[in-house]
Amino acid sequence: MGSYIITETKAPYGYFKTDDEIHVTVAVTQDNTDVVITVTPDTLENRPIPEDAPYGSIRLKKTTSDSLPLAGAEFGLYNAGGALVKTAVSAADGLVSFDKVAFGTYTIRETKAPEGYDISKTEGSATVSGNNRNVSAEPYIFVNYKPDEILPTDGAGIRILKVDAESESPLPGAEFTLYGEDGTPLQTAVSDSEGVALFAGLEPGSYTVKETAAPNGYLADNRVISVTVDADTVYSFTVENTPDPDKTNIIDGETPSGGLLPQTGSLWDTLTLALLGAALIIGGIALIYTGKRKPHSS
């Protein structure tokens, strides 16, 4: 029982956020037999952003290391000159939206982590233009770790989260290679059942990471990730894979885990069937020939 106010905290893509409020009153009747709810107004309207408007929007998603949505992370949007132009907070579904963003190229940084989590060192980027107004940050997913989740070994690290581009489900089996500043391969890592590939115990310096083998049934992502690593810092990136339209989850007689498909019969069964079929054919020909022979006169 009581009075409440409902406000819009995030507008749909392509619309302005409304500042109107919905006022709700919940009360019981005098005889305590019923509950009366009054809502004024009962609808809110959003104005669409004009197609010729010189701005758009940027979205990203905040998750835990288990790929669950994470609310309460604060982000800043910085223009090409390094000035803070907007702030946003991740909602219950983990989504972060910067609305009414002027055309230009931006950097996105987490400025405050949710309680119980370490702040993410990942930096995102996005460009809003007349041809691309509503965009996703690159990377789209930002991950927060709890203090006891940082690397199992000392030193810095790079964590890659491999996901399906359509469902955002974790993808195991993707191989990544870590290269030094001179292009020398240093380590390889394969995404596990949680979609995570980890390069741990790195010295400070500049590195690049490439996907060198895609999961079964997917196209490889050819993006090159460049990272300048500081001491004792984990850098997180999300890499998406698009399903290969020319393949399925079963390729060349293999299951997705690489095992052979169960056989429906042995070699002996195949030979037996072949011989039986040949005998039936020969028998049929003999019957036809016999039926056509004319009897000899005595």
Descriptive labels:
298 residues; mainly beta; Immunoglobulin-like; 4-stranded antiparallel sheet; disordered C terminus
Structure in words:
By secondary structure, this protein is mainly beta. It folds into three domains: 2-40, no CATH class; 51-138, Immunoglobulins (Immunoglobulin-like); 150-259, Immunoglobulins (Immunoglobulin-like), CATH 2.60.40. It is 9% helix and 43% strand. The protein is built from one helix and 18 strands. It has one helix at residues 267-292, and strands at residues 2-7, 21-28, 35-40, 55-64, 74-78, 84-89, 95-102, 104-112, 123-128, 134-144, 156-164, 175-179, 185-190, 196-202, 205-213, 218-219, 224-229, 234-243. Strand 5 (74-78) and strand 6 form a beta hairpin.
Give a brief description:
The protein is mainly beta and 298 residues long.
What percent of residues are in strands? 35-45%
Query: Which overall shape is indicated by the principal axes computed on the Cα atoms?
Result: globular
CATH uppermost class of the largest domain = Mainly Beta
Q: Widest sheet: strand order?
A: 6-5-8-9
Number of helices: 1
Radius of gyration: 31 Å
The parts where pLDDT drops under 50 for at least 5 residues are 249-270, 289-298
Number of DSSP-assigned strands: 18
CATH superfamily of the largest domain: Immunoglobulins
Task: Kindly report how far apart the N and C termini lie.
Answer: 117 Å
The CATH architecture category of the largest domain equals Sandwich
- Structural class comes to mainly beta
Instruction: Count structural domains.
Output: 3
Q: Report the biggest beta sheet as strand number plus sense, adding barrel if it closes.
A: 4 strands, antiparallel
What fold name stands as the CATH topology of the largest domain?
A: Immunoglobulin-like
What is the N-to-C succession of helices and strands? EEEEEEEEEEEEEEEEEEH
The residue-averaged pLDDT reads 81
Tell me the helix content: under 10%
